[in-house]
Automatic annotation (TrEMBL):
It catalyses: thiamine phosphate + ATP = thiamine diphosphate + ADP. Mg(2+) 2 binds at D50, D79. Mg(2+) 5 binds at D217. ATP binds at G126, D127, R152, S216. Belongs to the thiamine-monophosphate kinase family. GO terms for molecular function: ATP binding; magnesium ion binding; thiamine-phosphate kinase activity. The gene is thiL. This is Thiamine-monophosphate kinase. It comes from Actinacidiphila guanduensis. Mg(2+) 4 binds at D34, T48, D79. Residues 156-244 form the PurM-like C-terminal domain.
Length: 321
């Protein structure tokens, strides 16, 4: 495809984007009308939204449009799964400059579509607007299938904390890219295209998970949300988390303790859940800690019994953001 978004025009761009979409049985009416219609058998809809801003969340010299699309969809679909729901639909709001090559938003949509297919969802509509900075906003919907939602507020003292999915891989990949390298490729790709274990969220709900979250801002930070909402302390065992040998090699090369990436690196979108002690967990889950009664006034997350003193976790308005 030749030309720019401006040359293609708003409605030409919409036609190009929607022509590439697939559907699912849940979509009763897709793009093309004033609004979409998506089946909600449970009669409750789980909804979430997130934004990716060029220069803040992605760089075009590091990631292709397809990569950005996969990442934008993944971070929202993971939120749906972390509630114990099954993703059903996605809506896209896109801001792009007129001079942007028309291939970029088309490839972005390909990435969003393909990530939705992995999770069992479909793109059902959206909006496109002209603006100076590329902005990708996704709204994802899901269905609980008669399950109660698994929130952050249900953890109880004595419950075990477990995780499934990658931890620290995206942060290690970002460190590699920040130093001008493109390998080890597995870690760079983990930063460009996270692979959330979507199936694990509903499965954890069926197993009786008492609290759950996806790891978007870092393990310590996100478990801190569970600790605060549930009124419990959470102690993590550093020896229980997985630090791959190649991540250790990257850490040595750049002067970073790889455990820091595992505990504080975000954007892997692994699933962390809290379970009663008597639940037999499948092999995909790794037990990494335990919830306990708060030792002080404020619930907190500790590592090996001690506060994690090093900076970590993402805050859009925090220092260095």
């Amino acid at each position: 495809m030749k030309g720019t978004v401006g040359e293609l025009g708003e409605f030409g761009l919409i036609r190009e984007l929607t022509s590439r979409l697939t559907s699912t049985p849940a979509v009763q009416l897709g793009p093309g009308d004033d609004a979409a219609v998506v089946a909600a058998p449970d009669r409750r809809v789980v909804a979430t939204t997130d934004v990716l801003l060029e220069g803040r969340h992605f760089r075009r010299d590091w990631s292709t449009a397809y990569d950005v699309g996969r990442k934008a969809a993944a971070q929202n679909l993971a939120d749906i799964a972390a509630m114990g729901a099954e993703p059903t639909a996605v809506l896209l709001a896109l801001v792009v400059p007129a001079e942007l090559p028309a291939t970029w938003p088309v490839e972005l949509m390909d990435g969003i579509r393909d990530e939705c297919q992995v999770a069992g969802a479909a793109v059902v509509g959206g909006d496109v607007v002209r603006g100076e900075t590329i902005t990708v906003s996704i709204t994802a919907l899901g269905d609980l299938r008669n399950r109660p939602p698994v929130t952050r507020a249900g953890a109880r003292p004595g419950n075990l904390v477990a995780v499934t999915g990658w931890l620290g891989w995206s942060a290690a990949g970002l460190a590699v890219l920040s130093r001008g390298f493109r390998s080890p490729r597995a870690f760079v790709e983990a930063h460009r295209r996270p692979e959330p274990p979507y199936h694990a969220g509903p499965a954890a709900a069926d197993l009786g998970a008492t609290a759950m979250t996806d790891i978007s801002d870092g393990l310590v930070a996100d478990l801190g949300h569970i600790a605060a909402a549930s009124g419990v302390d959470i102690d993590l065992r550093s020896a229980a988390v997985d630090v791959p040998a190649q991540m250790t090699d990257i850490g040595q090369a750049v002067g970073v303790d790889p455990l820091h990436w595992v505990l504080t690196g975000g954007e892997d979108h692994a699933i962390a859940a809290v379970f009663p002690r008597d639940v037999k967990l499948p092999a995909r889950w790794r037990i990494i800690g335990e919830a306990a009664r708060p030792a002080g006034r404020t619930p907190r997350v500790t590592v090996d019994g001690a506060p994690w003193e090093k900076a970590g976790g993402w805050d859009h308005f925090g220092p260095g953001a």
